[in-house]
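thought: fold this chain, then report.
action: predict
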Amino acid sequence: MLIFDHLTADFMPFLPTIFTVMGVGILLWILYWLLIGRHHDVGKERKFPRQIILLGVMLAGILVTILVLPISESSRNQLIGLIGLLISGIVAFSSTNIISNFMAGILLRITTPFRTGDFVRVGDHFGRVSERGLFDTEIQTETRELVALPNTYLTNNPVTTIRSSGTIISVSLSLGYDVHHCQVESLLIKAAEKCGLEEPFVHILDMANYSVTYRVSGLLMDVKKIISVRSNLFQCVLDTLHDGGIEIASPTIMNQRQIEKDRKIMPMAMHTTSTNVNVNAEEIAFDKAELAEQMENEKEKLTQTIQELEAELKNASENDKIRIKEKIKKCSERLNHLNTDKVETISAQK
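observation:
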């Protein structure tokens, strides 16, 4: 009996620590289940803030556990300092590990160089942003492939983002000195206008030994059609120059193949239309990125609507309050649905 009392007396100081550890563990498990566990299909974009919350709660739990340890004040301060030093060391040597991607992900959220649905170019990669995760960013390429780029790669390399307000589409080609530049410029501008580009212009880029290099450019307002419009611009340039009697061939072609002096290298006039005119390549290639952008825009509109309804609710009559609360409920349910469902899930439902 005396031994049992002695063991109990030695064990009692550790009870607060044990209960604290158990409480923190249970709290973390519940939060994980509520935020991520029951939403296993949630996308990276929705996981990011939830993972930040779990990380913050875990760090707070570690700090609380240290504070209730049955040790002296100096030892407790040394332990807290050691943990702070350890975290600092991890951050300091994070250039090649997971923490570096985590820190880069936070930096990308703060600076916001791009949003979900934007066209971006990083190194050899080009596509639309479909998801922004805690450790990587996913883009959808022109071939409908999904490429996950580490966040450190995005912070260490220049990121080119196509502005949603419009972008410049250009085509370059070389023509001989026997064609007057005024004629070329007028035909190229006509081709750009025919393609649907606004405010077209032509620049002379180079005057080589045998040819002059021209570049026709125009403003594309609907950037989501960038692939189709660029292809149409090539097609319009070909048709317009050929219809204007200008051959698109290198002046040195005579050195490669003997042809008649007055013969022009250009196809016969065709009156048939292209077979893929009605095909929207962007809808096929960037389906996930397009849906992700639509979801983000809808979430922003729903959040703004809820805020406006809550402000209206304060000064509304009793009858109007019931109607406003019902609207808030519907908007909140839709917002929760968007926050919990993954892009692929909604796409499959559609």
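thought: worth noting. The first strand starts at residue 119 and ends at 122.
final: tokens above.
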